[in-house]
Amino acid sequence: MQPTATDTPQTLTNAVSIVDKQPAIATLTMQPTSPLPLQLSGFVYRISPGGEPVKDALVCLYEENGRFVSHVYTDEKGYFAFDSLSPAAYLVSAAKEGYHAASLLPVSLSGDRALLQELVLQPVTGGKGTVYGTVQEEKDQTPVPGARIDLIDSSGNVAGCALSSETGEYALYGLAFDRYTAIAAAGSYSCDSAAVTLSSDQPSVMINFTLCAKESPAAVSFLSGFLKSPDGAPIPLAWVGLYTAEEGINRLVAVTMSSADGYYVFPSLPDGEYVVKAQALPQ
């Protein structure tokens, strides 16, 4: 007889008969209980937690690998909520026209409790530039969702980052007028980059990236390592840039992020001299 479930999902019963005092075997297969749906909620504030709430801010939720999950808008109190989530690691971001682009914030849902998160947006006091566009695959021009777009300013600092949506679209708001290098990267593709200048005459610039799928060479060379703090703790989700070092000139050729244990890797590299630079993104 097949086991039948009682009112409690983790409790199974099985009818067993003992005949002529012979031993009987009763096997019960316990199915793991499905985790309860979790909620990620919080508030988006102006300048600092406890400050003025930001209404109608766009809050996006991504899986740890960059795949888009969902988006919501904040209410008049700056409140947002994502319901029916599974226990996992996520990335969350907030954006609104007139505010500086915010960095992606890692969050982790576990157990049976909801997570309340505060996000901060800083209003633009100088330039109000915007960089936007799409990320497509070179072969058939299909969208590349979950691609990471980093914007590096003229001082070499990360000025903003975003992830492309399911349609391949992205946008970075609230950028100071400056010269930038924009880089798009996705796991199985080669990076694409472009130079862009934002000014009062040209405050909004569209950059469409085309990513080429990486080929698997017969002999693969790679560069990898770990990012750690002075006390030896790993530094996760930090920006890592790879530069060629030729004739005293460093040229950015690839970008990646460190993993949860601080590990990074640049695959499929030809022979040559390289420089690695890393920067921890503000939380």
From TrEMBL:
Gene3D superfamilies: Carboxypeptidase-like, regulatory domain, Immunoglobulins. Keywords: Signal. InterPro entries: Carb-bd-like_fold, CarboxyPept-like_regulatory, Ig-like_fold, SDr/BOS_complex. The keyword Transmembrane helix does not apply. This is Carboxypeptidase-like regulatory domain-containing protein. It comes from Solibaculum intestinale. The lineage of its organism: Bacteria, Bacillati, Bacillota, Clostridia, Eubacteriales.
